[in-house]
Design a protein that fits this description.
The chain is α+β, with helices and mostly antiparallel strands. Helices cover 20% and strands 29% of the residues. The strands form ten sheets. Strands 20, 21, 24, 25, 26, 27, 30, 31, 32 and 33 form a ten-stranded mixed sheet that branches. It has a seven-stranded antiparallel sheet with strand order 34-39-40-41-47-43-44. Strands 2, 4, 5, 6, 8 and 9 form a six-stranded mixed sheet that branches.
Length: 916
């Protein structure tokens, strides 16, 4: 496509400021993707900031970062000086070595392409964690009493101590084998739950850092910590498996104090602590929690409590060299829900409906007699008759039990468990009725920032987007789980792989995946095998295609979404090890060995449909992903400057595709597996010569027609299906599949009342019966990967590989499907980017927002430049935009930052209906 000459401003040349508007401002400062992070052991932190302006085409031309160890900037730890660069995202620290536990303050100013300089930004800060193992003076301690090995009540540990001086600052560092909750002087430490989170505990154990300055006081103090079994030694995986990482439960805690006179002190876990049990009599992630208020030890986290009857503790020699600061956002409480219905089922069960399938727990307020026992069960759905249904939870009891003390109003909520549910069943609740104000469901998930919105004129599609986001919330609970309700809740790699790009739109998941990918690498075998689940609590050491490829796919998707080169640097050895494993397993570059899940949960039926079949050869799929992972490794090697690897793996990729063509393509260009997934993968991964691709795409369309315009893909084919259709000129079919509302389709569950994504296309059948209870989750996010097509193709908001992270934005909307409007917006590191369109009065109106310090290529469907207007005026080259001639039905507009409003003729694509 030939473009008209760019105006000088788009070439990055500075102009004298001939505009009357405010100078650029700098705000939204982030250090390692977080605002004022407390407790980092990243020794070379990276800084990100945004430019705020009311001018178009605002670009940064230089920056200056100033860092000090005091808020007044008296003295500099690092002053970058004026650096000529447009970089404002993940800019690396280049100062002197940082010190353990120290707080640093930073600010930034920028210069723009109008010749203007900003003022200094507001001051931000970060605080380092413990950088050396020797910084830990605390000792591992475990309960000193003989534990009940059957019920395993939660241990309570405490220490009373005296502070003789005024405190300037105090920082607590805490972790555990198991889970913990801490209090100081009766106040909860932090607002995170299920700490320290789940990692590959044998290799990596995270600790949390808390500012407890205002919780301590001069005089008597007390710290108390409750422990729960958690993932460490609790029931996890299948078959009532316990003690996966160890039989012990233990605490490591340290408070570093700086006094007003400049001296320091430390409070540590050691043999001076006491241990006992309290009201948490039983706690397991799958089975729930039992709390007995008659066992409550009132005031045990406050000074003055009499712990004379408590036992001592045992000092343990557990490793500290695997400890690391927290890299991701912790699990916190988020939305709350009140009952939408309180009713009796046909069986006479007392049931509450919260109207949303969520993950978390229920808080109860209740009055009753001493010993009254309330049982709360959790379920996602009701059965055909309207009764409470829990068979799909398998062995997970999902039962919380509360025993009343009978001393007025009491409140109950769990500590070390979580549930996936929309409904609860209650037994033993005192009184004839439950008041809605006494029952609250709390959603819990990793504290990721919401970043993306997507809204259309179609209510069912809007509900689908809602379901995609809630499926992500419920399953992004420190690790990307497959489901949150049954006896599983594991970090299945296949689910994370297929959904990862969609996830980057809905929420800020850079830190979330960066943390988890390190566990992927930690649990990867020496031979390069990536296990089915990470952390690998199942112990399997097989690598299935589409699952183990998480090691290549997710790092690359994170790089595209965030421009984070470090994630490629960190994961590159893991990426390479997986590709090398596949190469070693192959014979003549053809991978036809080992176990594979294949196109998991694809649509199947007993009869054959006009000679077609939805069953895709598993080794065919393996060869496609072998090529895909090799391509991603080449991409990463290019980014990292590893040219020897680029050459070696480029040669390998050619051999892989040649072997595929020889084995799986007939002389007439047909694939030996003629399924939707086969054609989708072959086309998406460029496994076919260009001359054969159009006919392959046509065969894909014909297959879809043969199934009554329904998809038949499973986990591995579904994410790419609509992308392939659009790419090869069948966007109308992509819309037809999106809007199909009978089984199998994305909208079938929506019409059946789903509020999250289902594991199976027909988890609930049209007659209201269920799929097999052995595997039928109603909160399983994988098929929500269609969101990626909706955001990047339908709304058209995308980024380029060469300038990832939305530094160079690609806007290419695809109106159609009978929609009258669709809009996607995304909070990027640079600010808000948005692309929306509306069809009315015979025209399509486009609204596009491009954040400062970025540029965009805007492709609008039109046959001529003359068909497009901006703000009601003819489109013309000026200082803001550059226009290219129409090509392939699109006009290219190159633009800088700002808000743009274009109009063009309405698309002529056929209206899509939901019927067959």
């Amino acid at each position: 496509m030939k473009l008209m000459k760019f105006p000088a401003i788009l070439l990055g040349l500075q102009f004298a400021a001939a505009v009357c508007c405010a100078q650029v401002k700098v705000d939204n400062l982030l250090c390692e993707n977080r605002t004022n992070p407390l407790g980092m052991d990243v020794t070379v932190p990276r800084f990100t900031w945004q430019l705020s302006t009311d001018k178009r085409n605002e670009m940064q031309t230089a920056y200056r970062i100033d860092i000090s160890d005091n808020a007044n900037f008296h003295g500099h730890v690092w002053d970058s000086g004026k650096i000529g660069s447009d970089s404002s995202v993940l800019v690396s620290y280049k100062g002197k070595p940082l010190q353990s536990g120290k707080r640093y303050y930073w600010r930034v100013r920028v210069w723009d392409n109008y010749g203007k300089a900003s003022s200094w930004s507001e001051t931000a800060w970060w605080q380092m964690a413990l950088l050396q193992t020797s910084d830990w003076q605390a000792k591992w301690i475990s309960p000193g009493y003989a534990e009940d090995t059957v019920n395993r009540p939660s241990p309570f540990m405490r220490k009373q101590f005296h502070i003789h001086k005024k405190i300037r600052s105090a920082t607590a560092y805490i972790t555990a084998h198991g889970m913990y909750e801490a209090q100081i002087n009766g106040q909860r430490v932090g607002d995170a739950y299920l700490t320290p989170g789940w990692t590959s505990y044998k290799n990596r154990l995270q600790y949390q850092t808390y500012d407890v300055t205002n919780m301590l006081k001069e005089g008597s103090n007390a710290i108390g910590v409750m422990l729960g079994n958690g993932w460490y030694r609790g029931i996890i995986g299948y078959s009532d498996k316990r003690n996966v990482y160890g039989k012990d439960i233990a605490l490591l805690a340290q408070i570093n104090i700086t006094y007003e006179d400049g001296t320091t002190g430390v409070i540590i876990s050691d043999d001076s602590w006491k241990s006992s049990t309290g009201e948490i009599r039983y706690s397991e992630i799958y089975n729930g929690e039992t709390i007995d208020h008659n066992k409550t030890q009132d005031g045990w986290t406050q000074p003055g409590f009499n712990d004379g009857q408590w036992s001592g503790v045992k000092v343990e020699d557990y490793p500290k060299n695997i400890l690391l600061a927290t890299y991701n956002e912790m699990v916190k409480k988020h939305e709350t829900f009140k009952p939408v219905r309180i009713f009796k089922t046909p069986k006479g069960e007392r049931v509450i409906d919260f109207g949303q399938n969520l993950v978390g727990w229920v808080m109860l307020k209740v009055k009753g007699k001493p010993g009254d026992t309330i049982k709360v069960w959790h379920a996602e759905v009701l059965d055909k008759l309207g009764n409470f249904y829990t068979e799909n939870l398998r062995a997970a009891k999902a039962e919380d039990t509360y025993i009343l003390k009978g001393n007025g109003e009491e409140t109950f909520e769990p500590h070390f468990t979580f549930h996936g549910f929309q409904f609860i069943r209650i037994e033993g609740y005192p009184g004839d009725q439950i008041l809605p104000e006494d029952v609250t469901a709390v959603a819990m998930y990793s504290d990721m920032k919401p970043t993306g919105t997507f809204v259309t004129s179609n209510a069912l599609i809007n509900q689908l987007q809602h379901n995609i986001q809630w499926g992500q919330k419920g399953n992004f609970l420190d690790v990307p789980t497959d489901c949150p309700q049954r006896d599983e809740r594991l970090g299945w790699t296949g689910d994370a792989q297929v959904f990862s790009r969609t996830a980057t739109f809905n929420m800020g998941v850079n830190d979330f995946f960066a943390k988890w990918l390190r566990d992927v690498a930690a649990d990867q075998s020496p031979a390069g095998v990536v296990p089915f689940v990470v952390p690998n609590c199942l112990g399997f050491t097989q690598g299935s295609t589409g699952w183990a490829d998480v090691s290549t796919v997710v790092p690359w998707n994170m790089y595209l979404a965030y421009g984070d080169k470090r994630i490629l640097q960190t994961q590159y050895p893991s990426m390479k090890a997986w590709v090398d494993y596949m190469q070693h397993q192959s014979k003549n570059d053809l991978w036809q060995t080992g176990f594979h899940f294949g196109d998991w949960l694809f649509y199947s039926r007993d009869d054959d449909t006009d000679g077609t079949s939805a069953i895709t050869d598993k080794y065919f799929i393996a060869q496609c992903f072998y090529a895909y992972s090799t391509q991603l490794l080449i991409n990463a090697a290019n980014v990292l400057g590893k040219q020897d690897d680029v050459a070696a793996y480029t040669a390998l990729l050619k051999r892989i595709k040649d072997a595929f063509f020889k084995e799986y393509v007939t002389p007439n260009g047909r694939l030996v597996s003629g399924t939707q997934t086969a054609y989708t993968l072959a086309l998406n991964f460029d496994m076919l010569p260009e001359s054969l691709r159009p006919q392959a795409a046509q065969r894909l369309v014909e297959n879809i027609h043969a199934y009554g315009n329904h998809l038949t893909t499973g986990f591995l084919g579904t994410p790419y299906l609509c992308h392939v259709l659009t790419r090869f000129g069948h966007n109308d079919m992509a819309y037809r599949l999106l809007l199909q509302d009978t089984y199998p389709s994305w909208l079938y569950p929506v019409k059946m009342g789903a509020t999250t994504i289902w594991e199976r296309w027909d988890g609930i059948k049209p007659d209201k019966t269920f799929e097999a209870a052995s595997m039928n989750s109603f909160n399983h996010y994988s098929y929500g990967a269609i969101g990626d097509w909706m955001y990047r193709v339908m709304a058209g908001l995308d980024t380029y590989d060469d300038q990832p992270g939305y530094k160079h934005i690609r806007v290419m909307p695809h109106p159609g499907g009978g929609f009258t409007n669709a809009t996607a917006s995304l909070e990027t590191y640079y600010g808000k980017a948005a692309s929306g369109w509306e069809v009315k009065d015979g025209k399509t109106y486009y609204s596009i927002d491009i954040p400062a310090n970025t540029k965009a290529d805007i492709y609008l469907p039109a046959s001529s430049v003359n068909d497009i207007t901006e703000n009601g005026k003819a489109l013309a080259v000026d200082k803001d935009i550059s226009v290219g001639a129409a090509e392939n039905g699109y006009v290219l507009i190159k633009a800088g930052s700002g808000s743009y409003h274009f109009a063009a003729p309405a698309p002529t694509a056929p209206t899509v209906t939901t019927s067959k």
